[in-house]
Amino acid sequence: MTETLLKPLKAGLIGAGIQASLTPAMHMREGAAQGLAYEYELIDLSQRGAGPEDLPQLLDEAERRGLCGLNITHPCKQLVMPFLDELSDEARDLGAVNTVVFQAGRRIGHNTDCWGFAESFRRGLPDAALSHAVQLGAGGAGVATAYAILSMGLTSLTVFDREMERAETLASSMSALFPQANIAAATDLASAMQAADGLIHATPTGMAKYPGLPLPADLIEARHWVAEVVYFPLETALLAEARQRGCSTLDGGGMAVFQAVGAFRLFTGREPDATRMLAHFNALTA
Fold first, then answer.
1. Are the CB atoms for 112 and 98 separated by under 8 Å?
2. How is this protein annotated for GO cellular component (predicted)?
3. What angle in degrees, to the nearest 10, is found between the helix axes of 253-268 and 23-33?
4. Phi then psi for 197, rounded to 5 degrees?
């Protein structure tokens, strides 16, 4: 019996209303494929009657029970940061953590969301023009997608959000990190789409609870690429409309899988098989 099997790995996910999450299945299936005794649990604030204010106790409890790490999701990605000892460069730049590794008595915060989107984009839209993109949404997902696409060399990004102040904050923070790029918050979506190569959608619109399109359909043209972050459902109204109009598209599944790939690597120290994890995700969502 290997040392890994003698000492089972345990990880978990902290968030609110996470019972439908596919993250445990993806992690444990990949662990089993690699011969690991790997358990992954949900720490659902809603189920426990807890809130973000309980994070210190939940982190202590997870550490005490020997978990190797935790994934962090809404509404805790920013609130968890004061309780960590160290941050990766990405987590510090984004001001958000989605993965905490417990290592030698220290809590190290990472953000694999940005890498997850970038890797999905590279694989799914390899020939996408990166001169000018429009992004809808400046919340947690929008920070990660903006950082990712700018890291890939995008030269101009126009950000839209229902809360103008939030769009301006994102544009300002990204401008400081990517001074070579032209990044701005705006209100004239029609003009921006006319000038753009593509669209990044980073709002909840398209989920079952928020049906519909996030922008007028006639602003989408065949020359645009369209990248989605929503993955429940994989085929959102936006993607269906974009495909009908002849656009190259990217669904939100890749970002969900590749952030899990990054977290698996951090938790286990093993290199995951990304293709296998993607195939498993596709089977779970078929």
1. yes
2. cytosol
3. 50
4. -80, -35
236 in helix, strand or coil? coil
Looking at CATH, the fold of the domain delimited by 3-111+257-285 is given as: Rossmann fold (3.40.50)
Rounded Cα gap, residues 237 and 284, in angstroms:
20
**Both tokens of residue 239?**
């993607």
Question: What pTM was computed for the model?
Answer: 0.91
Question: Which pair of tokens denotes residue 243?
Answer: 């495909």
Other CB atoms within 10 A of residue 17 CB: 13
- Which DSSP string do the residues of 46-80 spell out, in sequence order? HHHT--GGGHHHHHHHHHHTT-SEEEE-TT-TTTT
Distance from CA of residue 68 to its chain's centroid? 21
Report pLDDT digits (tens) over 135-158.
999 988 999 999 999 999 999 999
Angle at CA of residue 273, ends 267 and 275, nearest 5°: 130
Question: Which positions are annotated as active-site residues?
Answer: 77
For the chain, residues with pLDDT lower than 50 are 1-5
Tokens 């974009």 sit at which residue? 242
Helix (H, G, I), strand (E, B) or coil at 159: strand
Q: Which two tokens stand for residue 119?
A: 């890797």
Given 3.20.20.30, 2.60.15.10, 3.30.365.10, 3.40.50.720, which CATH number is that of 114-251?
3.40.50.720
Alpha carbon distance 255, 200 (integer Å): 12
Cβ neighbour number for residue 118 with a 10 Å cutoff: 21
- Nearest CA-CA partner of 168 in 151, 152, 146, 183: 183
The residue with tokens 């958000």 is: 96
Name the residue among 134, 128, 118 with its Cα closest to residue 215: 134
* Residue 255 token pair: 């970002």
